[in-house]
TrEMBL record:
The organism's taxonomic lineage, starting at the top: Archaea, Methanobacteriati, Methanobacteriota, Stenosarchaea group, Halobacteria
Compartment(s) where it occurs, according to its Swiss-Prot or TrEMBL record: Cell membrane
Protein name: Binding-protein-dependent transport system inner membrane protein
Pfam families registered for this protein in UniProt: BPD_transp_1, BPD_transp_1_N
TM stretches of this protein: 79-100, 112-139, 159-185, 228-252, 272-298
UniProtKB keywords: Cell membrane, Membrane, Transmembrane, Transmembrane helix, Transport
GO cellular component: plasma membrane
Protein's GO biological process: transmembrane transport
Family the entry assigns: Belongs to the binding-protein-dependent transport system permease family.
Domain of life: Archaea
Domain ABC transmembrane type-1: 73-291
Membrane topology note: Multi-pass membrane protein
Keyword Nucleus among UniProt keywords: no
InterPro entries: BPD_transp_1_N (IPR045621), MetI-like (IPR000515), MetI-like_sf (IPR035906)
Length: 304
């Protein structure tokens, strides 16, 4: 991404100072920011800053990049976590029902839902949800959130008022559904295929021959073994949601990293864009390490 600075249109110094700035002032800013250096020199200077935790300053607002990233992290994490919860709560029961009732109407319905979920673009779904629930019915807000999850919980604990939590749920409902729809369809299909594969294994036949109830066999043994690949996909998709919420946050004006990335792109604010991308990469790696730990717990054989 750093190399795109060299080929992107526009002079960063001119963007920082405005079109009315004198050439002398522009050259001074270019020298001060190191923009007159070769691109490889700028790159190594940037890497040296990253090593000591210095992400630089935003060209547009002249604020520290790490501060601008950190203040938007909670909103993005909230949206990604709630979207994941929505997807898991809906997808796993659908996948189990579809696998245990093959070639029945419920199976066809779950398959059709998965197909529609994977095929529907997020931006179109978001606009349709806004039109339906925000404009026609008018039961849910469609703009920027009024309160964060942390603030809502503080209000609930300290004052015993659930008003803030209800407001937060109302604002996050549509963005979470929009972001989690593709995820829901993916997990549904994965659960169905995993359950079908596990149900055909000898240990299921042996468990039923021992007289164990079907519900116990289905949910304690079969679903547990099916969850191993699902957990892996959940981790990968969680990292993807962190970086892939750009469109959803833009549609709903959600104050997260995605919306800030779009604003930085419009302003050609490269230090801010790079800082956001670096954070998303770090978050993706961290989440995958955490998923590997859970995978080892669910399947101890991987450690042997």
């Amino acid at each position: 991404m750093f190399g795109l600075r060299a080929v992107s249109p526009g002079d960063p110094a001119t963007l920082m100072l405005g079109e009315g700035a004198t050439q002398e002032l522009i050259e001074h800013v270019r020298e001060q920011e190191g923009l007159n250096e070769p691109i490889y020199v700028q790159y190594f200077d940037y890497l040296q800053g990253l090593i000591v935790g210095d992400f630089g300053y935003s060209w547009r607002s002249n604020r520290e990049v790490e501060a601008m990233v950190i203040e938007r992290i909670p909103a993005t994490v909230e949206l990604a976590v709630v979207a994941t919860i929505v997807a898991v709560v809906i997808a796993i029961p659908l996948g189990v029902i579809s696998a245990t009732r093959r070639n029945q109407p419920s199976d066809y319905g779950a398959t059709m839902f998965s197909l529609l979920g994977i095929s529907t673009p997020n931006f179109w779904l978001g606009l349709m949800l806004i039109l339906l629930f925000g404009v026609w019915i008018g039961v849910l807000p469609t703009g920027r959130r009024a309160v964060g999850f942390g603030e809502a919980m503080v209000t609930l604990v300290q004052y015993g008022s659930a008003t803030g939590l209800i407001t937060w749920l109302q604002h996050i409902a549509l963005p979470a559904i929009t972001l989690g729809t593709y995820f829901t369809a993916l997990i549904t299909r994965l659960t169905r295929s995993g359950m079908i594969d596990e149900l055909g294994k000898p240990y299921v036949t042996a468990s039923r021959a021992k007289g164990l109830p079907n519900v116990l066999v289905r949910y304690k043994h079969v679903l547990r073994n099916t969850m191993i690949p699902i957990i892996t996909v959940l981790g990968l998709q969680m990292g993807t949601l962190m970086g892939g919420a750009v469109i959803t946050e833009t549609v709903f004006n959600w104050p997260g990293l995605g919306l800030r990335l779009i604003d930085a792109l419009d302003a050609r604010d490269w230090p801010l864009m790079q800082g956001i991308v670096v954070f998303i990469a770090i978050a993706f790696v961290t989440i995958n390490i955490f998923v590997d730990a859970i995978y080892s717990y669910l399947n101890p054989q991987v450690n042997e």
